[in-house]
Design goal:
Layout lengths: L6 H4 L2 H10 L13 H6 L6 H14 L5 H8 L6 H5 L6 H15 L4 H13 L3 H14 L8 H8 L13 E3 L7 E5 L4 H5 L2 H12 L2 E5 L8 H4 L4 H16 L5 E4 L2 H8 L1 H5 L2 H9 E3 H8 L11 E4 L3 H7 L3 H9 L3 E4 L13 H4 L1 H16 L5 E4 L2 H10 L4 E3 H8 L20 H7 L9
Parallel strand pairs: 2-3, 2-4, 4-5, 6-7, 6-8, 8-9
Antiparallel strand pairs: 1-3
Helix pairs in contact: 2-7, 4-7, 12-24, 15-19, 18-20, 22-23
Length: 443
């Protein structure tokens, strides 16, 4: 792609970065049919190729962007499916980040929009505040039908109950001989929504020889404000985490929310410091480190049919695809691949709150594909996906770490309590066939 930035514009490192990315795009268009929003609307402006043209024009012009441009860029999920299928590997993720920062700086949104985005950016990264907001939301649910679409959609996503535990700085000792010392990112929204995930992750790591520390000073990863163009806030959160973890002698930083993991692994780019680069290189999804350590033999194998949903941030952002499946198989489950597994479920951080119509269409589409596999349980590795899928599915949705913990001696996951699961029928050839690695990864 040819660009027409002036010399003065290219003196700005942010514009220079965007220019370098733009020039790599050759408009082959392989990205279009793997883009969820384009597949739904068939509008070229809702495709990666179309959005790249919009971003080029917006950044070349400078100043306030057109409302139409903002509309189509806001509808991007940042699912990164386009990057997986791109023949020339255009760095779309950092380009859309630059575009969102430009919009945040130069575009004056309607007052209600500005207020909602500011509220989400402030509340969601602070678990105690988010927990209080959800409690208020449950009280307001009866009023949902009288409210604007966005507020109504937000209230519909508030769970009927939450299981919150805000973890204080502490260390959980390994069982038996210690083989690793790791720091766990406790997260922000996840702590308020479902503390079972962290509890299961800690038990699982302890059982497999890891000291697990919750580091003082570490908090939100910064991804929620970053994806709303609020880069200074994201950098503030990221800097605090880097400083906290740099004081902690650990073998790895463990993340059990894939959206957070993708951001933390990219701290070197966001902050451009040696410490940030080192922390990013230390960061591992919980399934990555468990795959490296090796799962203990299941305490009581249960051959339940588990549909595994790939979070976009894990499969496209981190390229962690095989490890969760291999671990679930090792735990004795029958692993089912979901049709159209490269498609986003519509959660995408705050997307299902800011773009409820598109998120609903994607959530229903994903739920239908999951239902088609006839699973007993749905497993995934991201709290946002869990919340979104639970809203549209009639099946229990469980974090992968919870299933692995249960299989190796931990308690029954809370989402499975009171659920009448089908009695697993163990037939070796059938289980082997159903659990065989997928061969339809077209990317």
């Amino acid at each position: 792609m040819r660009t027409n930035f002036s010399a003065a514009q290219l003196a700005d490192p942010e514009i220079a970065e965007a220019d370098a990315i733009l020039q790599t795009c050759v408009h082959y268009g392989f990205c279009t049919n793997t883009c969820p929003t384009y597949v739904l609307t068939r509008d070229e402006n809702d495709s990666p190729r179309g959005r790249i043209d919009l971003m080029r024009a917006m950044l070349e012009k400078g100043g306030a962007p057109e409302p139409k441009t903002v509309h189509h860029l806001d509808r991007c999920l940042s699912c990164l499916s386009c990057m997986t299928t791109c023949a020339v590997k255009v760095d779309y993720v950092h380009l859309i980040d630059r575009a969102r920062v430009h919009i945040e700086r130069h575009f004056k949104r309607p007052l209600a929009d500005r207020g909602l985005r500011a509220l989400l950016a402030y509340v969601l990264p602070r678990p105690r505040l988010f927990l209080a907001a959800m409690q208020a939301g449950r009280l307001a649910k009866p009023l949902a039908k009288f409210l604007p679409k966005r507020l109504s959609a937000m209230l519909s996503m508030v769970p009927s109950e939450t299981h919150a535990e805000i973890l204080a700085p502490q260390t959980f000792a390994a069982e038996g001989s210690r083989i690793k010392r790791v720091a766990l990112l406790a997260g922000c929204a996840q702590q308020a929504l479902d503390s079972s995930i962290n509890a299961a992750t800690i038990r699982l790591l302890q059982r497999h020889g890891c000291d697990v520390t919750i580091t003082a000073g570490a908090g939100c990863c910064g991804s929620l404000p970053l994806h709303m163009g609020r880069e200074p806030e994201a950098k503030k959160f990221a800097t605090a985490n880097v400083e906290a973890w740099s004081r902690e002698p650990v073998d790895a930083i463990i993340v059990n929310a894939s959206g957070c993991g993708t951001t933390v692994k990219d701290y070197g780019h966001l902050l451009a410091t040696p410490d940030a680069l080192r922390i990013g290189a230390l960061t591992r999804d919980v399934t990555e480190i468990m795959h490296d350590i090796g799962l203990k033999a299941p305490a009581n194998p249960r051959a339940y049919r588990v549909a595994y949903h790939d979070p976009c941030s894990m499969q496209h952002g981190q390229k962690v695809i095989d490890q969760p499946r291999a671990l679930l198989r090792a735990a004795g489950f029958v692993v089912l691949d979901v049709p159209e597994k490269h498609f986003c479920c519509g959660s995408a951080g705050t997307y299902n709150l800011l773009q409820p119509d598109m998120a609903e269409a994607l959530g229903q589409r994903k739920a239908a594909h999951i239902d088609s596999t006839d699973p007993d349980i749905v497993a995934t590795g991201n709290i946002g996906c869990m919340t979104q899928l639970s809203h549209y599915l009639g099946k229990p949705v469980v974090h992968t770490a919870e299933l692995l913990d249960w299989a190796t001696g931990g308690p029954l996951p809370r989402a499975l309590e009171g659920i009448a699961l089908r009695e697993p029928v163990v037939r070796a050839p059938e289980i082997a066939a159903a659990s065989a690695p997928a061969t339809d990864n077209f990317w």
